[in-house]
Amino acid sequence: MGIVIGVVGPHDLVDDVAAVCEEQPGVSTLRLDYDHESQAPAIVEAHASAVEGWLFTGIVPYMLSRDAEALTRPAAFVDYSGATLLSALVRLQHEGQDVTRLSIDTLSAADVNTTFAEAGLPTAELRTLPYRPEMTSKKAIAFHRKGPAHAVITCLSSVHEALRDELHVLRLVPSVHSVRVALRQLMLTAEGQAQEDAQIALGLIEVANEEGLLREATALGGTLAAFRGGTHLLVTTRGPLHDATGGFTGLPMLGRLAAQNDAVRVGFGLGRSAAEAESLARRALARARRIGEVAAVLSLRADTDIVLESVTSAPAGAQNLSVIARRVGLSVSTLEKLLEARAAAGEEPLTTREIADRLGVQQRTARRMLHRLELAGLAERTGNLTSGSSGRPLTLYRLAL
């Protein structure tokens, strides 16, 4: 089974980095370029459901995305120190520049000094501006302008564009070796995350009124079945459960079910096999019974039990858009627009044309999205509406997000 890597960077770097990634068997890429590094977080958020990992062409777009809390998948960036910086020095020397007098941004002083020491070059007249969260391209430009008219090494395309007519500027670009190192690191992280997220999570639920249980299971990306003794079995995996519980802290579905039942007890077990998960779920349910009428417990290996708090939340589905987005392959922003369309329609079903108009897409794209939601139990066909022309009838859908 292959892995899809989202490659994020400026226009002229993304294709080269993606091509190196695709040399690796089983790796395909989604090429996502930007005009300015500040656009990286929005790009990541819009395409999160389409990739298993992110590879950034440099540290700046990576840090911007991380600080914006947009990274919900494993991520890595291509490092420009070491061999990449050394090759830039060789190029500058060939161009007749004094490589002992440089103005360098983004790279740390320690990395720069190490590379220069390995090359036997002095560092006394180097100026460095290491990356910090508060650093912007404007600040980097000002840093280079205020110093002596040394040659400039930058990691930012925006800085290169601003200064290339004023100073001798060389923009660092990822070396093939650096890309391969970053990709290897990313794949190891993504593989570990995938194995962890794929751990089986079984929930045993004791509740008299079954209303809403199916929707809760769907919001957790799982399935629901009858168990023995009137107990219900919810089957999902670690990833969706982790997201829906805020990192295994609170269980929103507990509060929603308690609003319709005097007693609700939930026991989740997380294991590497179905048998292990079921054994842990039984232990969790037994402890939930001892706690009280409304309780939920998650049992892990090594005799670890976590009491999940009952929290007030939005209805199932609306609460867990990130889980649903991952399951159906749509972005969170698309799901939010669908929620707005459902709210505007009230109790009335929506046509494929209305949904296409709301999302700003073609009808065939809207039909594909609705088909995904239908397979996930989040949309239901309620009939057809003649469009009044010779075209195909418009299908009516009721959204259950």
TrEMBL record:
<protein>
    <recommendedName>
        <fullName>HTH domain-containing protein</fullName>
    </recommendedName>
</protein>
<dbReference type="InterPro" id="IPR036388">
    <property type="entry name" value="WH-like_DNA-bd_sf"/>
</dbReference>
<dbReference type="InterPro" id="IPR036390">
    <property type="entry name" value="WH_DNA-bd_sf"/>
</dbReference>
